[in-house]
Amino acid sequence: MKTLKLSSAVRPLAEYVANLKNDTVVLTEGNRAVAALIPLKNVDRESMTLSQHPEFLELIARSRAEFDAGRTIALDEMKRRVLSKRSSNTRIQPTARRARRG
């Protein structure tokens, strides 16, 4: 990761982007990060959008706080709780396709 003072960014944005390769460039103002140039190779739009969604970020923050406070359960326990609530026939049966009328 590289940092660049915003006041020192004199080249056009396109030149910085062209030189990214696999590095992230964090733009700073004073000692504070204010923006980042991130290569989007191997990143889908859904992941990028979700990672900036305020409700998703709040959910992640709450989950991390619960984990830090020790209010979590093991995966095996979660499976036991969830699966015990399901009916005994948990298989999903495919529906028969009807022949198209022409």
Any overview of this molecule?
With 102 residues, this protein is α+β, with helices and mostly antiparallel strands. It has 2 domains: 1-41, YefM-like fold (3-Layer(aba) Sandwich), CATH 3.40.1620; 43-85, no CATH class. The protein contains 4 helices and 3 strands, in the order βαββααα. The chain has helices at 13-18, 45-50, 54-68, 75-85, and strands at 2-5, 25-29, 32-37. The chain has a 3-stranded mixed beta sheet, with no helix packed on it. The mean pLDDT is 84.
Please give the structural blueprint.
Elements: E1 2-5, H1 13-18, E2 25-29, E3 32-37, H2 45-50, H3 54-68, H4 75-85
Parallel strand pairs: 1-2
Antiparallel strand pairs: 2-3
Quick synopsis:
The protein is α+β, with helices and mostly antiparallel strands. The protein has helices spanning 13-18, 45-50, 54-68, 75-85; strands at 2-5, 25-29, 32-37.
Number of helices: 4
Gap between N and C termini: 61 Å
Radius of gyration: 24 Å
Output the structural class: alpha+beta
Q: β content, as a range?
A: 5-15%
Low-confidence runs: none
How many strand elements? 3
The helicity comes to 25-40%
Please trace the helix and strand order, writing H or E for each element.
Answer: EHEEHHH
Features:
flat, single chain, 4 helices, 3-stranded mixed β-sheet, YefM-like fold, alpha+beta, 102 residues, 2 domains
